[in-house]
Amino acid sequence: MDLDPNLADAYYALGRAWAHKGDHDQAIVDYDQAIALNQKSADFYNARGESWKAKGNRDRAEADRKMAVGLQGK
């Protein structure tokens, strides 16, 4: 399936689907792509942080949480 790389929301949706299936590695790949296309979405950082948390990487999860909080304040 080919996606228009400008569709950050599509990558985010794919990431959510992978996370729902428990494949947090693939979810992070898709969240990374969504964030690369749109660095201003707190939702993208929150979702990626949840996948990092699920993988046991608290440092990266906390970094994404802080980024999301910062974006929500704007």
Can you describe this structure?
The N and C termini lie far apart (35 Å). Helices cover 76% and strands 0% of the residues. By secondary structure, the protein is mainly alpha-helical. Helix 2 runs antiparallel to helix 3 and helix 3 (42-54) runs antiparallel to helix 4 (58-72). It has 4 helices and no strands. It has helices at residues 8-21, 24-37, 42-54, 58-72.
Tell me the layout of helices and strands.
Layout: H1 8-21, H2 24-37, H3 42-54, H4 58-72
Helix pairs in contact: 1-2, 1-3, 2-3, 3-4
The termini sit apart by: 35 Å
Largest sheet: none
The dominant shape is flat
Question: How are helices and strands ordered from N to C?
Answer: HHHH
> What is the β-strand count?
0
Radius of gyration: 12 Å
Mean pLDDT: 93
Number of helices: 4
**Stretches where pLDDT falls below 50 for ≥5 residues?**
none
**DSSP helix fraction:** over 70%
- Find the structural class using helix and strand composition: mainly alpha
Binned strand content: under 5%
Quick summary:
The chain has four helices and no strands.
Question: What attributes characterize this protein structure?
Answer:
74 residues, 0% strand
